[in-house]
Amino acid sequence: MPYPKNRPLKADLYIQRQSRLRPRDVVKLLQLLREQCKKKGIKNPSASLFDSPNLISMYSNYDTDQVKSEMMLKYSAETIKRIFEIVKMLNADTFTETCFENIYRKDCNANIGFSGIFSGHRAMLDVLYTLDLVGGQEPLNIAEIRIGTIER
Question: Model confidence over 61-112: pLDDT tens digits?
Fold first, then answer.
């Protein structure tokens, strides 16, 4: 999400949002920021540098490579490729479990060899969640919230 231009940039919050908060990921993001600052001849990164497509792309490539490396301990290269293709088929920032299940089933029907790798769509979602490729979002029921308290 872009930063408001009229407020000071909170670099620590940006790093928390962009990285998986492992020390090596934070160091890599800082190295990429330093490289971009040198290229632009500036001392400190600005909000536009933090949000630049170039920086986001470089870090995304790094992060994808890290995830694939972790997956290679358990899955074949072909399986990893299929997993990423299923994620790409979602084509959205947010999705429902039913949507994911439909895409998973269609892919398993088209690729019979892939269907035996996971016990179901939930097992694959668990792997994606463990690798920080997807996250969960609880629905917020406004009717249950009162100012300052939650009634049970």
Answer: 898 898 999 999 999 999 999 999 999 998 888 888 899 999 999 999 998 8
Residues 11-52 pLDDT 10s: 666 676 667 777 888 888 889 988 988 888 888 777 777 778
Tell me the DSSP string of the chain: -PPPTTS---HHHHHHHHS---HHHHHHHHHHHHHHHHHHT-SS--HHHHT-HHHHHHHHHHHHHHHHHHHTTTS-HHHHHHHHHHHHHH-SSS--HHHHHHHHHHHHHH-HHHHTTSSSHHHHHHHHHHTTSS---PPP-GGGEETTEE--
Q: Give the sign of the dihedral formed by CA 19, CA 23, CA 24, CA 26.
A: positive
Distance CA 114, CA 124 (A): 11
Distance (Å, rounded) from C-alpha 149 to C-alpha 25? 38
Backbone φ and ψ for 43, nearest 5 degrees, come out as -85, -40
